[in-house]
């Protein structure tokens, strides 16, 4: 026989309320009223869900965060389905592994991938949290979609990683792409380009492969991805 647990029940009700509200968002006062609980208690749950990426705060309240898609898989209107034609074209033109990454709280999660044409290739693990840095997608999120608390998060990384990001940020913002030349995995080179929906960075597309094969081409692959995304209406402007 199953039994209820008050904490679990409240968390589920918060997520359900945010789901019903959709893009409008749900206010903290509304959540407190629906849960019949003090605002201070509900705010604690909400802060935790935001930190883990399951809620996101907007000017009008709270909406579901990218962590929900990370757990449940792509929904009908998910960014993966929106850009599937672009993904296929990037894959065809580069021949390397193409992956969709989203930010979930303080982590980056790969939610979808198209395999490379080569037998020796990069094969990412999907739906696994990993540190934002030094991934190419994480650099992109720091550049174009900073969040409250990022200063503290950045301080948790080693000085070399922080210094490298600070050095690279101007070029990332100028070009719209971020590179990782063997920083995460010594023999893998990667580049990321952002997917902007209504001018908001929603995801990153990465192209990655063995560094011996891709090092001289990886920046060009990023330019291809950026141009294709811009042409399909997923650019910054």
UniProtKB/TrEMBL annotation:
Name used for this protein in its record: DNA-binding transcriptional regulator, IclR family
Entry superkingdom: Bacteria
Pfam families: HTH_IclR (PF09339), IclR_C (PF01614)
UniProt GO BP: negative regulation of DNA-templated transcription
Stored InterPro entries: GAF-like_dom_sf, HTH_MetabolicPath_Reg, Tscrpt_reg_IclR_C, Tscrpt_reg_IclR_N, WH-like_DNA-bd_sf, WH_DNA-bd_sf
Keywords, sorted A to Z: DNA-binding, Transcription, Transcription regulation
Domain HTH iclR-type: 5-66
A single GO molecular function term of this UniProt record: DNA binding
Organism: Brevibacterium siliguriense
Residues of the IclR-ED domain: 60-237
């Amino acid at each position: 026989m199953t039994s209820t647990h008050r904490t679990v029940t409240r968390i589920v009700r918060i997520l359900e309320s945010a789901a019903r509200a959709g893009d409008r968002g749900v206010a903290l006062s509304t959540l407190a009223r629906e849960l019949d609980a003090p605002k201070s208690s509900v705010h604690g749950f909400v802060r935790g869900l935001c930190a883990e990426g399951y809620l996101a705060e907007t000017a009008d309240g709270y909406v579901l965060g990218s962590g929900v898609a990370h757990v449940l898989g792509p929904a009908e209107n998910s960014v993966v389905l929106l850009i599937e034609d672009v993904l296929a074209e990037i894959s065809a033109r580069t021949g390397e592994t193409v992956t969709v990454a989203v930010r979930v709280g303080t982590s980056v999660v790969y939610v979808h991938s198209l395999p490379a044409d080569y037998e020796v290739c990069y094969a990412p693990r999907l739906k696994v949290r990993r540190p934002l840095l030094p991934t190419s997608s994480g650099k992109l999120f720091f550049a174009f979609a900073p969040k409250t608390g990022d200063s503290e998060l950045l301080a948790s990384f080693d000085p070399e990683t922080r210094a490298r990001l600070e050095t690279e940020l101007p070029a990332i913002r100028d070009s719209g792409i971020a590179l990782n030349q063997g920083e995460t995995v010594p023999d893998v080179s990667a580049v990321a380009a952002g997917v902007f929906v209504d001018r908001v960075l929603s995801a990153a597309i990465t192209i990655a492969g063995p560094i011996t094969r891709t090092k001289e081409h990886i920046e060009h692959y990023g330019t291809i991805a950026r141009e294709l995304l811009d042409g399909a209406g997923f650019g910054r402007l």
